[in-house]
């Protein structure tokens, strides 16, 4: 993909997306200074990705729990969740630029940034895939932002034939928390090839985790060994 990188350099001069300062070679999207100011998520449940209340922090630090009250109420099929940012500006603005402004380069670069931040923290897996959209939604929107982020993360086009979204469901954002779990029920189908594989699913924004959970369920039902989730950002419901 070196030609693609050169292509990007040529058409999109590399300057910090926030302060416009020229970027150094190892800096991606933002300069070192602006990077420190990004809304990194501080503490969240490593089992389900739920951002924890301040009051819980002490408890967590002392007892090192790997579940929260949300996990206790809800069965999750994924094994572990990794999240980088809170869904706050500028991350939330950038995700909107991708979704509504079709800024594909931004999605790709966020994928590279995600890799740079997380590469030491993620478990070894056999397969890294984006969370799929339904065919209908893909046609309406023309692209899957998670696919583009995963493309940047991998540095190559992701293989996305092992997990399909077979049901076209209402956008989760229009629904209440309870309705979201019902809405995506059995929306995914995985291929037999995922058997005994460890898989990482990449998504842009995780909210209740309902959609990612259904995707994980489909993978586990076909015998996937481990399913991990990596979300760029977590928004609170
Ligand atoms: Zn900057
Ligand atoms: Zn939890």
UniProtKB/TrEMBL annotation:
This is ComF family protein. InterPro entries: ComF/GntX_DNA_util-trans, DZR_2, PRTase-like, PRTase_dom. Coiled coil: none annotated. Residues 8-71 form the Double zinc ribbon domain. Belongs to the ComF/GntX family. It comes from Thermodesulfobacterium geofontis. Pfam families: DZR_2, Pribosyltran. Residues 187-232 form the Phosphoribosyltransferase domain.
């Amino acid at each position: 993909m070196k030609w693609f990188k050169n292509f990007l350099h040529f058409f999109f001069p590399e300057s910090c997306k926030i302060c416009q300062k020229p970027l150094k070679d190892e800096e991606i999207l933002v300069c070192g200074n602006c990077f420190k100011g990004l809304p990194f998520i501080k503490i969240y449940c490593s089992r389900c990705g739920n951002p924890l209340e301040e009051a819980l922090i002490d408890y967590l630090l002392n007892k090192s729990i790997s579940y929260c009250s949300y996990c206790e109420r809800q069965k999750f099929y994924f094994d572990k969740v990794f999240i980088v940012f809170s869904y706050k500006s500028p991350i939330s603005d950038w995700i909107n630029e991708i979704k509504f402004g079709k800024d594909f380069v931004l999605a790709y670069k966020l994928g590279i940034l995600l890799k740079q931040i997380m590469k030491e923290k993620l478990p070894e897996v056999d397969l890294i895939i984006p969370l799929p959209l339904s065919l209908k939604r893909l046609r309406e929107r023309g692209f899957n932002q998670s696919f583009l982020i995963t493309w940047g993360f991998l540095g190559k086009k992701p293989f996305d034939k092992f997990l399909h979204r077979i049901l076209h469901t209402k956008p989760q954002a229009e629904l209440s928390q309870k309705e979201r779990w019902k809405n995506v029920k059995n929306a995914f189908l995985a291929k037999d090839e995922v058997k005994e594989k460890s898989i990482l699913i990449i998504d842009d924004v995780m909210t209740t985790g309902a959609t990612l959970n259904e995707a994980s369920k489909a993978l586990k039902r076909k015998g996937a060994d481990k399913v991990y989730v990596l979300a760029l950002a977590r928004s609170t419901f």
